[in-house]
Amino acid sequence: MKKAKILSTIFVLICTCTFLSAKDVETGDVYEPTATRIPMPKKKKTSGLLDKLFGKRLSDPVLLAESSLFRFNYLGTNVNQEEINIIYYPKEEEVAIAFETKKNRFLRLDNRAQAALKSAFYSYDDAFNAKTLDSRRRRHLTEYGSVKARYNIDPLVGHEEYIPEITFGYVFVNKSPYFIISIPETSSVNENPIDPERTKQSTLVRLLFNRNQMKTLIEQFNEEVIVAALQKAEAEAAEQEEYQGDTTSEDKVSNSSETADKNTETK
Q: Exposed site from 20, 64, 225, 237, fewest CB < 10 Å?
């Protein structure tokens, strides 16, 4: 009995150590007076510059960064961490948060939505540091305003698109505050070909962030980050084209040699 108890204790310790050593595990912010404001980079205007640098050569989405956020668990009593991709759409100049397990839901923010989100988070960060967040009430979902955004669900399959009025606020979960983006239920802008009066309806989604996660997201709005990502994507595309060109040339030479050999054998 004693041996079984010792083995059980060792197993729990190993599991705990493994969990704590996992990379990129985020936690909620500690709400204490020692917290300091996270410095945020200023956003520069991108208007015109990307066209000058790249023209219409790049139109496909480009990965800016990999990060994470939190989602409520099934009961809404705690949060679970979820990995996300932050993507840039050159043609529309939108930054998107790709979330869900397969990264198949996209909250796309144009310049106006990016500015609104940035302003909302600055207000939250100021209140966090001033210790004026109201912890007596758990949820403050619309504290920092709202803005229209584009929301795509699994665009590779059905390209269902919504234009919800997303809201910004904060919530407390286990005494830790989180900045929250709420995507309300919204009717699809896509017409139902079978029954035009019955459009699809999206479900309510809430995305929670600690301050470091929000800093990572907002950093991707910067011109320098976007330009660097586009330059990298263009270089990779050019390299791929060059490789394909070399492969095609080699195939042609190989085919020509085989043809010549066959002709020689025929003679």
A: 20
Identify whether the C-beta of residue 38 lies closer than 8 Å to the C-beta of residue 215.
Answer: yes
What is the β-pairing status of strands 150-153 and 146-148?
unpaired
- Crossing angle of helices 111-130 and 211-219, rounded to 10°: 150
Residues whose CB falls within 8 Å of the CB of residue 132, separated by 6 or more in sequence, listed in order: none
Q: Is the pLDDT score of 254 beyond 80?
A: no
145: left (phi over 0), alpha (psi -120 to 50) or beta: left
> When comparing pLDDT for 154 and 267, which is higher?
154
Q: How far apart are CA 95 and CA 61, in angstroms?
A: 9
Can you give 96-153 as a three-state secondary structure string?
EEEECCCCCEEEEECHHHHHHHHHHHHHHHHHHHHCCCCCCCCEECCCCCEEECEEEE
Dist CA 241 CA 243 (whole Å): 5
- Residue 36 DSSP code: -
Q: d(Cα 235, Cα 241) in Å, to the nearest integer? A: 10
CA angle 162, 120, 212 (to 5 degrees): 100
Joined tokens for residue 143: 């504290």
If DSSP codes are grouped into helix, strand and coil, which group holds residue 1? coil
Residue 99's DSSP bridge partners are 105
> pLDDT tens digits, residue range 117-159?
999 999 999 999 999 999 988 899 999 999 999 999 876 655 7
